[in-house]
Amino acid sequence: MKRAFPIFLTLNLSPIKYVPMIDEIDKSIIRLIQGDIPLVSRPFKLMALKIGISEEEFISHIKRLKQRNILRRFGATLRHQIAGYSANAMVAWIVPEKRIEEIGNLFSKFKEVTHCYQRPSFKDWPYNLYTMIHADTRERCYEIAKKMSEASGIKDYVLLFSEKEYKKTSMRYF
Question: Which domain holds residue 58?
Answer without folding.
Answer: 24-67
